[in-house]
Amino acid sequence: MVVVQVQGGLGNQLFQLVAGFCVARQNSDSHLLLDASRVSFGTDKSRRLQVLNFNLFSPELKVDVWGESFRRLAQFGPTRLSSALAISASKIHSKLRFKNYFYFSEDNPKVSLEQLDSRSILNGYFNDFSIVERAFSLGLRNNLELKSQPSQWLSDNLNEVDFETSIAIHVRLGDYLKFPQIFGKLSEDYYLTGLEEVSFNESQQVFLFSDQPNLVANHLPKISSYKNCKIVRQPSAVPSYENFFMMSQFKNIICANSTFSMWAAWFNQGPEGRDKRVVIPTPYLLDRADMVTPSSWRKIPRG
After folding, report:
1. DSSP code per residue over 194-210
2. Which of 26, 27, 36, 246 has CB atoms 3.0–4.6 Å from 67's, for a disulfide?
3. CA angle 32-136-265, nearest 5°?
4. First and final C-alpha spacing in the chain
5. Which of 108, 137, 166 is the last residue of a domain?
6. Where in the sequence is the domain holding 262, given as residue range(s)?
7. CA–CA dist 270, 250 (Å, integer)
8. For the segment 154-169, what is each residue's pLDDT rounded down to a tens digit?
């Protein structure tokens, strides 16, 4: 059994799950354990383990979850104390249950993922689409499927939106604004250049996706003023993974510097032979090298 210490939002969760899947499959193992005690770390305590709301693998892969109770507790205490307690609980659990496992840290790797056996604990973000491509060759599905019935909001959008001609734009604000030295804001020039790259004309519909829909018009005043521009506002009762699922249906996606929209772009397969167009910013983050992404994606300076 491969153990994955999950952290961050949906995009990061997908990378981590896929890395664990690769290690399991290369060792003919069919069991993953997700340590979810760390999901609420960072700037957003409301995060949930959302990655299991999709059918990503064949049914023979068994995925169990540990640590959800610690994730819930982290919502009610000071961030540092909650994270320290969750880390301690995770370490104690690992030592007691997985005494002979190899701890693989992405920050200080002694071996590569390809060299790991199934008695491994994975810690890291693994933001690398070459790992995703390898997972696809090992059985990862590239057509996104919900495990449950969609909400009425999502059903209505799936029936009404022309995903072949419309353009999805993702704008990440929220916690990114708190750490400008790492994430930074993408300029409107980046998004305007992205529209040129996908051959936009003003008769096409543009859908603005954002974690802060009430702020996005101020951030993109020119684009939001287009006659056929719509800001996507999901009802509070609708989970964010449905917003992600809707974004993944578009043929044309202009991504933020966010794994959320980059994964939506990876899943936007659509009909066979679809000539999809994906735009991503470079650099992805300000404090590290760009992640490895599909060669067909168009990189544009963030401005």
Report:
1. HHHHTT--TTS-EEEEE
2. 36
3. 105
4. 45
5. 137
6. 152-301
7. 8
8. 999 999 999 999 999 9
